[in-house]
Amino acid sequence: MNFIQFMFTKTFWVQVLLAAGLIVVLCLGYLYWLDWHTNHGQKIEVPDLARKSLVETDLILEQLDLRRHIIDSASFNPDFPPRSVIEQNPEPGSFVKENRQIYIKLNPSGYGLITVPNVVFKTKRQAIPSLQALGFKIGNITYQQNIAKDMVLEMRHDGQLLESGTQLRKASTIDLVLGDGMREDQETQIDSLIIDTDAIQNDAE
Fold this sequence. Notes:
The chain has 205 residues and is α+β, with helices and mostly antiparallel strands. It contains five helices and eleven strands, in the order H-H-E-H-E-E-E-E-E-H-E-E-E-E-E-H. The strands form four sheets. It has a four-stranded mixed beta sheet, with helices on one face. A hairpin with a 2-residue loop joins strand 8 and strand 9. The longest helix is centred in the N-terminal third of the chain and has 28 residues. The chain is rod-shaped. It starts with a helix and ends with a helix.
C-alpha cells in the first residue's frame, strides 16, 4: 500500500484527528499559561507617592503587590520634606500589572555644598550676580569708609567673616560690606562743615 492509498484509510484520518486535537490542546494550554503568567486583564492603579517617606512608600507598594526602585536625585526641593518622594514613574493614576517596579526619586536631606567664590575687591555689580548664579542669597549690604565706592571689602555669613573657598549650602545668605566711596579727609571736611554750619546757626540765634 502506497502513501496515496493510505491517505484514504480510516487509520490515517484517525491519526490526523488525534494530531489536530493535540495541537489545539497545546495551543489552548499555552494561551492559558501566557494569560496567567502576564496577569492578563489585571489592573493596579499606581498611588500618589508624593511627599511620602520611604517607609510609607514601602508599606503602600507592598499592599498593592508593587515594587520600588530608588533613583538618585541631587536636586533639593525645599517645598518637599527631606527624604520624601519628589518624583515617580509611572505617574499616579496610571494602571500597571502586579509586581511592577515603580521608580521614585527622593528629596535629599538638604542643599549641597557650594564653594564660595572670591568676590572681594570686585564691584557690587559684579559680585552679586556671581553669588546669585551659584545659588546664594544676598543678605544685608553695609558700607565702610573706603575710597572705592561699591567695591566688596568683606563677605559675612551669620555675622562671621567669610573667606573665599569656604563651602556653604546652596541658598545660604551672604552679607556684603562695601566701600562708601569716601576718603578719611573728606569725612573730616564734612564733619567740620557740619560743625561750622551749626556754629553759624547758633550765632544767628
